[in-house]
Amino acid sequence: MKIENIEELEKRVDLAIKAVAADVHYAESLGVLTDIREEMELYDFDENKDHLSMGLHEADGAYPMHPEVAKLLIDIYEDGIENESADAMCDLGSLYYTGRAGEQNYEKAAYYYDMADKAGNRQATENMGYIYYYGRIGQRDYEKAFKYFVKGALDGHLRSLYKVGDFYKNGYYVEKDPKEAFRIYEHCTNTMTDEAAPLVGADVYMRMGDCFYEGFGVEKDLMIAQRFMSSAENMFYTRLAEGDFYQKRNLEHVLDVLAKIRKEIHEELLPDLSWAGYND
Asked: Is the dihedral of CA 112, 102, 72, 34 positive or negative?
């Protein structure tokens, strides 16, 4: 439903506040809604819609969106798309990709991501890479995925860059090249900002840990591998707690590799201290 003016937006926000206040799972959403409602007169119509979309999109990420919040956000994004907002196109696509707004639909996600990519949104470019990498709308297409990830990497997206590294690690579309894969992962590690670390740090550190554990593109080093994997473990716990359910498999992988690393460290690196009564 199109939101025509500030008065209609106020009514929609009031309706959402009343709905989410009755459910203890949506404290973050309630906080965003009430704070913006109290300060609505300080900003214009479009600014208030921007504040709502930015605040509500990730709020209460461990749960599906409250239906009233989902309806409000979808209407805001559809209004933005009418005004040719590439961010609104990408954000609406992400709601359909994750299903948090009540409907998981990869076809719709790809439709809006493609629209946003053509409008210059590089997050959408990266997301299109995942659409083809995992075959969300049909067969996997590593050639298309690679080209989208390269495009995103050239625009400074570290997630796109480490995915390019994955292609060289696995030999997808390009020739397998362990040294090039490690070089890319290491570059991600060295250029990652404090702002980017909560978003991509776990993924990068997991890949670095794998390389040092396997001796893939770099000399095997169990101690360095353990440090990277331990950092990745902590970061994955945080992301899962925030509702990023796609990281469950990555966390399981990290825990499995950490167990192997610790076993090898114990068997291969620790000295025999039985002479000192260590085993008594």
From this structure: negative
